[in-house]
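Today's session is about reading a structure prediction critically. Students often jump straight to the picture, but the first step is always the sequence itself: look for stretches that repeat, for charged clusters, for runs of hydrophobic residues. Only then move on to the predicted structure, which in these notes is written as discrete structure tokens rather than atom positions. Here is the chain we will use throughout the hour.
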Amino acid sequence: MQTFPMSRIPLVAALGAAALMALAPAPARAEYYQYNYTGNAFTMTTVNYFSEPGDPSGGRSFSLVSIDAQIIANAPLSGTVTLSDIRSFSLTLTDHDSGSRSTLDFPAPPPIECPGCPNGPNVTATFSMADFNFLNQPTGWDMSIRTSTFYPTGREGWLMLSTSWQRDMLDGGYEAYVGQSGGLINSPGIWSVTALVPEPATYVLTLAGLALLGGLTRKHWRSHGGAGVA
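Below is the predicted structure for this chain, in token form.
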């Protein structure tokens, strides 16, 4: 059996290949950049201030947690970065013992308004990054998100997560009933940077070019009885 010689591909198929090259633009521009921080584990202490008298733990329980961060930006970050230089960021508290997660976002999603529902959450945030290394990863950062929710009973629940180059910490609770706290000093986690998702138009144009070339090639081979015979 012999293969079909490339020299016999008609001009129209060659034009299809040229169309493919023209339709798929030169390197796709990333739509945005994602900076991920993976923190190290530390101990969170939860205190129930209304535990039963004589409780040997004093109402305290402990779990292993960590704080992760995610920053979305339109372009690679450099210099001194503030909230106005990024699209969004979030901090996530992961409880490694239970597998549960609590994520705080900034900007925060709009609250759901309904009669009798909690008021909030009210969200405040701080953000700064600087001193980027040759991998475009920050070596200096300080960010926090605090959320507060007021309940119809007049009580408040809150959670604050923060991370910096020198400390990860959390503070939270439900008024005077439950408190949560924990921190890790001088043990920063790991940063990674990912350029995400070419513009959708890039995929559309590339697929259109591939479909054009594939259709032209199949049509030509059928007109010549397949790939050839020995």
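Discussion point for the tutorial: The chain has two helices and twelve strands.
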